[in-house]
Each structure stands twice: as C-alpha cells, then as structure tokens.
Amino acid sequence: xxxxxxxxxxxxxxxxxxxxxxxxxxxxxxxxxxxxxxxxxxxxxxxxxxxxxxxxxxxxxxxxxxxxxxxxxxxxxxxxxxxxxxxxxxxxxxxxxxxxxxxxxxxxxxxxxxxxxxxxxxxxxxxxxxxxxxxxxxxxxxxxxxxxxxxxxxxxxxxxxxxxxxxxxxxxxxxxxxxxxxxxxxxxxxxxxxxxxxxxxxxxxxxxxxxxxxxxxxxxxxxxxxxxxxxxxxxxxxxxxxxxxxxxxxxxxxxxxxxxxxxxxxxxxxxxxxxxxxxxxxxxxxxxxxxxxxxxxxxxxxxxxxxxxxxxxxxxxxxxxxxxxx
Amino acid sequence: xxxxxxxxxxxxxxxxxxxxxxxxxxxxxxxxxxxxxxxxxxxxxxxxxxxxxxxxxxxxxxxxxxxxxxxxxxxxxxxxxxxxxxxxxxxxxxxxxxxxxxxxxxxxxxxxxxxxxxxxxxxxxxxxxxxxxxxxxxxxxxxxxxxxxxxxxxxxxxxxxxxxxxxxxxxxxxxxxxxxxxxxxxxxxxxxxxxxxxxxxxxxxxxxxxxxxxxxxxxxxxxxxxxxxxxxxxxxxxxxxxxxxxxxxxxxxxxxxxxxxxxxxxxxxxxxxxxxxxxxxxxxxxxxxxxxxxxxxxxxxxxxxxxxxxxxxxxxxxxxxxxxxxxxxxxxxxxxxxxxxxxxxxxxxxxxxxxxxxxxxxxxxxxxxxxxxxxxxxxxxxxxxxxxxxxxxxxxxxxxxxxxxxxxxxxxxxxxxxxxxxxxxxxxxxxxxxxxxxxxxxxxxxxxxxx
Lengths: 326, 451
Ligand SMILES: Nc1ncnc2c1ncn2[C@@H]1O[C@H](COP(=O)(O)OP(=O)(O)OP(=O)(O)O)[C@@H](O)[C@H]1O
Ligand SMILES: Nc1ncnc2c1ncn2[C@@H]1O[C@H](COP(=O)(O)OP(=O)(O)O)[C@@H](O)[C@H]1O
Ligand SMILES: [Mg+2]
Ligand SMILES: [Mg+2]
Description:
The complex is a heterodimer.
Chain A: E1 4-9, H1 15-27, E2 32-37, H2 43-47, E3 58-62, E4 68-73, H3 76-88, H4 92-100, H5 102-109, H6 111-127, E5 139-143, H7 147-154, H8 156-161, H9 168-180, E6 185-191, H10 195-210, E7 215-223, H11 230-239, H12 242-251, H13 260-290, E8 296-300, H14 308-320
Parallel strand pairs in A: 1-5, 1-6, 2-4, 2-5, 6-7, 7-8
Antiparallel strand pairs in A: 3-4
Helix pairs in contact in A: 1-14, 3-6, 5-6, 6-9, 7-10, 10-13, 12-13
Chain B: H1 12-17, E1 23-27, H2 34-47, E2 51-56, H3 61-67, E3 77-78, E4 87-92, H4 95-106, H5 109-117, H6 119-127, H7 131-146, E5 151-154, H8 164-176, H9 179-189, H10 196-214, H11 216-248, E6 252-258, H12 262-277, E7 282-290, H13 300-315, H14 317-328, H15 364-367, H16 382-413, E8 419-423, H17 432-443
Parallel strand pairs in B: 1-5, 1-6, 2-4, 2-5, 6-7, 7-8
Antiparallel strand pairs in B: 3-4
One magnesium ion (MG) binds near residues 57, 58 and 158 of chain B.
C-alpha cells in the first residue's frame, strides 16, 4: 500500500467523500492517517461537520479499532510564507510580500509554483519521521484537484521547469517529483457510471500514465442498487404477459387486475424499461473501465444523503473490498 | 402529480421567440446540464426560426461530434440537420486560443511574439483559475459585436461555483491591475517617473526577496512578461467591463440550471441572489434531470408492503396459489389463470412456458428452500418479478419525494423565480434528437407531463 494516496476524479463525483472514507479505512486498527485538502474549500471540515480547518494538522476522527485520522487544509499562501520562513528566515519581508500581493501573484500567475508548494507540503508529511525514526503518518491521503487538472498538478516538475530552471523552487520540484513518481504514491480516480465521468477517467488514466505517474484504483461512487437482476429484466420486459402481472398486483392487494391494479402495469413496466436502459448503459461503462487493468471498487449511493455515519459505511465498504493498510 | 400553486412556470418558447431576447446565459454549478440546456435551447430557437449561435464550453465529446463542433478552431460552425427556417451555429470555446488572439489583435508583432513565448504567459493562459471564465466573456463580446446572429446562447465553464462566471473576469482584471504588477514593471520604466524613489525602496526589497525565492532568471521573465502585457491591461479591463454591462442590458436573460439536489440548488439560490444584486435579468430556473412516475398514486410504503407480501407468497407455493386465486376472483379470469402457471409456483413459469433457459438456475434464494424439483427455477417467477417492479417503484417514489423536498425548499426561498422542469432521460444526451427531446421538455410549461 502506497504511503501517499491521491484521490482525483471528475468534479462532483465524490473525491472529497472518497478521500475521507479512504482515510478512515486506512487508519482502521491503530494506524494514523493524514487527510489533506489542497483547494482551499474546506470540504473536509464540512464532511466531518467541524469548524473550518486551520493550516495545522489536527485530529478529526477516530477510525474503527482505535486508528486516528488527522486533517490538514493546505493553504498555498501560508505554505509559501512557511516555506520562505523555513529556508530564508524572511520575517517581515515575508509579510511585506504578502501585503503587496506578491504571494497572490506567485500563486496565481504561475499555478505551477503554487502546486509545488501544495504537493511539497504533502510530500513533507509523507516523509516526516518522529524522534524514534518512525513515520509520523502511516499514510497521507490527498483530496486532489479534478481529473482535468491532476496530471499538471502532480507533474510540477515539468510545469516548473519552464519557469524556474535553477534555484530553490527548482530543487523543491525535483524532490517532490521523486516521491510522486515512486511506488510510494498511488493516484486513484473516482467516477460515476455515466458517460462523461468515465470518459474523463479514461483520459485521466492515459495522461497520468504518459507522465509516468502511478495510477492506483478506480473507485466507482454512488452506485445505485440493482433492484431487478438480468433474469428479471428479461422475463419482465419481454415475456411475461401483462395480464399475469396485473393479476399478481391484484393478488398483492393493489386493486383489481382490470381496475386500479391493472392500471399500474404500464407505468411500472415503463419504469422497468428505463431501469433496463440505464442498467445496460451502466454495464457498458463498467466494461470500459474494466479495460484498463486497474482494481475497480464500487461504493453504493447512500439514498438519504451522506452524513458522518454514511462515511464510516463507505470506509467499511472499502475495507471489505480489500482496501487496507497492511 | 401535485399542483404547485405559488410557482410560475417558465415560458421558454416565449423567451426564445421574443426578438428582443438577444443573449441567453446558462449558468449553474458543474455537471447539472448547462451545456446540454444551452445546446437544446439553441436548437429549439433555430427550429423556431431564429438565427442562433451557441457558445459551448467543454461539451461532452459525443455531443460535440454530433453537432460537428469537435474540432477546436474556435469559430462558430453551422450545424447540419436543423429543421425549420432558422439557423444554428455552434462552437466550442478554446480558451488558450482566445487569449492568444487577444494578444495578437492588441499588441504589435514583436510585442505579441514576446508575450506568447513567455513562460508566464503560457502558464497564465493555460491555467489561471478564471482564465476560462474571462475568455468566455471575451468570446461573448466578440460574437455580439459581429452582429451575425440575432440570438446568442452562452454556456458557462464547469466551475464549482456558479458565481465564478461573474467574478473571475474582475479577479483577473484586478490582478493584472494590481499593485505588485505595477511594482514589477517599475524597473522597466526607471528614469521617467517622479516618485520612483519611494517605490524603489520597496522594489529592491521586493526583488531581493522574490529573486531569492524564484531565482533571478525567473524574476526577469516575470518582469518582461508584465512589461509586455502592460499596454494591454487597460484593454482587458475595458472589455471585461463592457461585457459585464452587456449582461445587465435588457436583451439578456439568465437561466440558472440546477439538478434537484441540495448542493446544486444551494448554488442556484446564491446565483439568483447575486443576479438580483447586480441588476442582471433572471428569466428563471431550469430544474434538470427531474424524475417522475406514471404511478405516483401508489406510495413507496404500499408498494414495498405489497412487494414483501408477494415475496412471502412466493416462498409458500400452496397457500400462495389459493390467495392469488382468491384475490383475483373478483376479476374476470385472464387468459393464463387456469393454465398450470400460478399453481406451479416453484416452476416459475406462468403459462407453462418451459423454456430453454432452465440451464441457468441463478436465483437460489427463491427456490432453494423448499422441495427441490426437477423442474428447477431458471428465471424469476411472476411474483418475484412483480415484487421487483414494486421495489423499483418504491425507490422511484422515494427519489421523487427527495427531489420535491429540495425543490420546495428552493421555491420557498425564491417564490418569484419561474421554473421549468426537465425530466431525466434514461441515457445521456448526445445527438440532435436528444437535444430536441430536452427542448420539448423545457418548453412544456405544466409539470403534468413529467415522465
Ligand atoms: N456514496 C455516496 N452516496 C450519497 N451521496 C454521496 C456519495 N458520495 C458523495 N456523495 C455526495 O455527493 C456530493 C459530491 O461529493 P463530494 O463533495 O465528495 O465530491 P467532489 O468530487 O469532492 O466534488 P468537487 O469536485 O466539488 O470537489 C456531496 O453532496 C456528497 O455528500
Ligand atoms: N435531462 C437529462 N437527462 C439525461 N441526461 C442528461 C440530462 N441533462 C444532462 N444530461 C447528461 O448529463 C451530463 C452532464 O451534462 P452537461 O450538460 O455536460 O453538464 P454541465 O455543462 O452543467 O457540466 C451529460 O452526459 C448529459 O448528457
Ligand atoms: Mg471536493
Ligand atoms: Mg458543461
């Protein structure tokens, strides 16, 4: 199991949710996981129903069996100032830079610079050791930018090479890349069983591989329950006489076969036909995903929305599907 | 179907047919169907006689292909197979190209070359958060000034927040106009200006610190870039302001698109409030991917209870048959009633069809418990099947209730907003027929027709 787990995917597919569930799953049984967020959106705090996270590692959840999940919202501005302080003892000049908008500048005009800071902070946490020489965290899980930007985001080296050819930023980028391109890192993609997210996932896999970034798992999120199986769909839609269904509905007390019960048949079959179409589409998208030889996982759609309890359910589901820290 | 007393339906056709409508902007959070809605509106307006251009951003690949706009040349193309008297043109925004074109149009050749090859320009044009929004506005301004279309439909970038579309151009503007940029430009101008002494103090500290951080070469690149862009800053801001004013003009209509989900409708509410604050004309809300049911009279609870009783019967064939017969007795017998089917539940074949799929016994739980017969159960019995249909229905009714609940929360907050509901089609929308189907649903003003 890689120590840096990066979670990407199309917007809205559940990156933040899956990253958090993954952190819980990996922290289970006495491990310690750090969940980091890089887009300044406080998604983790919302999910765990806590107040906004400061730029500081703090414990936000206990995993089953005594593990701990810490969280950190990396703020690029603060990371830059941190970095300046650490390497240059800039002190008040650092504050002046901020006041002038230099930090804003460095982090907006050159997204590559910002990304070096963000990934750099995450990699630092991956490598950090305590006094006894043990890793501070068993693993670091990153709620990363969406698929469309993930390769550029992680490939800071290429991005920065054009900007800083020598100097400390350049060196930092190199150090980051050594971690990111190693087996220590694994990039997972979250998707839904719909055409656009699957297409993005496929494109993402191709891009990541081309950039020699290690692709890990594909996690299909919000999978709807299979309410009718193949045999039922076939039998129901094509072979069963409508009168038999009408009678069965009547027998179940839903009104006479020629009356109220009978009138249900058409709409119920129409719903089944829609279901069948979606079922076929989902099957086709599953097949597309399966072509890439990556481990596939599926997480259910939690019908009543997602709360903290639901998050633990998803974590348990991941563990059942073999995602664990061993 | 419920009647919604307080709510105005949105009259999409009236909006599209009104010659005074010149720009329709589709906005909303990511993945809700903005692009689909924009394309469907464009097609509908064209087929109702208008000359339309649709500016799409990041369309699904197959949708772009079906409209013939999958090549990225950044100019509108006429869409084929549009019925009726109007014309539909469509394009897909290429943000980098749009940026390059601005540079080429507003700087002399040498300066343009210097800008285009500068690593900072490359980084900015490809990746600055907000560049896409800014370029969409820019393109809208360009299309409008060409005056070749009487209706422009604009899609907005897939940002996480619907508000980004309105804010990004200003952010880019103020960024390009910022204090630091002025400072960085100073060395290129040293000599000329009064008051530079003061700035120079700040400057040397600044360049010192930045130089340390970035390395000298990088700082020089920044300065060259900033100096080269200098002449264009004013232009950027002026055009962004002009487009912003265009959005406030009477010929513009905003449509906020949302799916009936909590997050999407929360964004929609922010957007509605923001439009009002900025005097931007809101035409209404498009609630996309709404589910309906033709059997809405049957509640989830009753459907589930019935499904359970059917499944129980299925496990006790003898009693089951009697009950079924008793239940159906009031009704005239159907064609299959006295064929072996209903009595012979374990066989699972109503009407005694003894088909070839018996070699695939894949529902052990249904038949396994009692007498294992020769005549094994291959598919599902009618009871199981009907129970499945009822469970499916219960699921649908729960979804309907959730969607209705989130929608009602929005309407309670904004009763003034007209709403058009678009049914969720079972598959994705990726051709003109799909767009027509969406268009028809958009224009259906009552919600009685929800699929
Ligand atoms: N398995 C699930 N069941 C039910 N709801 C879910 C599930 N996974 C995610 N959600 C919900 O879907 C929405 C989007 O999830 P989330 O915020 O994790 O996505 P994201 O990919 O991080 O989005 P963004 O691209 O905006 O960062 C949230 O409202 C979340 O609660
Ligand atoms: N009413 C609908 N029924 C079924 N699928 C839809 C509907 N509206 C949109 N879609 C599908 O949803 C996906 C996202 O739609 P899109 O218009 O690209 O969203 P956005 O532009 O808001 O990101 C597409 O695959 C599209 O085909
Ligand atoms: Mg997120
Ligand atoms: Mg779109």
